[in-house]
Design goal:
The protein is an alpha/beta fold. The chain has helices spanning 17-26, 57-62, 73-78, 122-131, 165-169, 195-213, 227-233, 262-271, and strands at residues 6-11, 39-41, 47-52, 68-72, 85-88, 94-101, 116-119, 137-140, 156-161, 172-181, 183-187, 215-223, 241-244, 250-258, 275-281. Strands 2-3-1-4-11-5 form a six-stranded mixed sheet. The two termini are 27 Å apart. The model has no long low-confidence stretch (mean pLDDT 95). Bound molecules: adenosine-5'-triphosphate and zinc ion. Zinc ion (ZN) binds next to loops.
């Protein structure tokens, strides 16, 4: 047994909080995340959860106050953090982009020379502009960046965008992407003995949950003369399970299919003669 718990830093309240807590719960790690809590101890896994501002997470992990943390790649990059990324988590997708007021006449990065840009990402922005040899006045502000042009603070902004609807409703349009980002699990480069094994167990569970999300379990009935065609449509992990039904000449087939294309496959199965098709979510999947 390890001498102490694994400590993970997660965003206390914000865009990553719900998905991060959801991920730990899908790993069957139970804990109390009542509002305003700053730390919590899992009841069924040697894990302590620290609830922090996302910007503080790289530092807490670097300093060893936490062993690992869930944070956007954008935050790691802005902090110039060298922390290793153990897992990409598949949520919190966004991009750091430059946007300008619609109709401003600024169409590309090179048009920004001698202009003012407001951002909460001054390092990433100045690195990007510096590589293009542009001389730009960067205004570093901590929030509500999208209103800066409207109130006369800047000619352009550099901010995180996901759907683009916030930009649109503020009369802005994107002209350049600086980086793409998603949430990741960052970890201290050296974990104490025992804690490293706990971290491996956590990663094993996270991988199993993320793999499961990309797949569905499918069950169906089919006449035996259609089996070959149906098996080709749903080859599964090794091969589909085929079991005879009590009704003569019919079989039940079970398999795993990719979530992203499963509606197309279900239509093809139906057309191929399958009946009683059930599609079921998978909680965890280890290949
Ligand atoms: P905190 O109070 O923890 O400092 P914050 O306001 O800095 O929170 P959020 O807006 O909650 O941060 O965003 C957290 C992370 O979510 C971002 O760093 C980014 O990785 C991700 N994200 C995904 N989509 C977006 C988006 N459209 N805008 C901002 N962040 C996004
Ligand atoms: Zn923040």
């Amino acid at each position: 047994m390890s001498s102490r718990n694994l400590k993970i830093a997660v965003q206390r309240s914000g865009r990553l909080s719900e998905a991060t807590i959801g991920l730990l719960k899908k790993c069957d790690i139970g804990f109390d995340n009542g509002h305003g809590k700053l730390r919590s101890r899992a009841f069924n896994f040697p894990l302590e959860i620290l609830f922090l501002r996302d910007d503080d997470i790289p530092r807490y992990v670097e300093d060893g106050v936490a062993d690992c943390g869930v944070v956007g790649e954008n935050v790691l990059a802005e902090a110039e953090s060298k922390l290793p990324v153990a897992e990409k988590l598949g949520f919190g997708q966004c991009r750091l982009a430059i946007a300008v007021p619609r109709g401003s006449g600024i169409a590309r990065a090179s048009d920004l020379d001698r202009k003012r840009i407001a951002t909460s990402y001054p390092r990433l922005l100045s690195k990007f502009l510096g590589e293009l040899g542009l001389n730009v006045d960067i205004h570093s502000i901590s929030g509500s960046v999208e209103i800066a042009p409207g109130v006369g603070l800047s000619d352009a902004i550099c901010d995180l965008v996901s759907s683009g609807s916030t930009l649109f409703s503020n009369g802005l349009e994107e002209i350049e992407t600086i980086m793409e980002s998603e949430a990741v699990l960052a970890v201290r480069p050296e974990l104490p003995e025992g804690v490293d094994r706990l971290f491996e167990s956590l990663c094993f569970r996270i991988k199993a949950v993320n793999e499961a999300r990309k797949n569905k379990y499918i069950l169906l009935n089919a006449p035996d003369n259609k089996l070959a065609e149906i098996e080709r449509l749903i080859p599964g992990m090794k091969s589909p399970t085929v079991m005879p039904l009590a009704k003569d000449g019919w079989s039940s087939i079970h398999s795993v299919i990719a979530e992203e294309s499963h509606w197309d496959v279900v239509e093809q199965l139906k057309a191929a003669g399958a009946e009683g098709i059930l599609v079921i979510s998978i909680d965890q999947m280890v290949r």
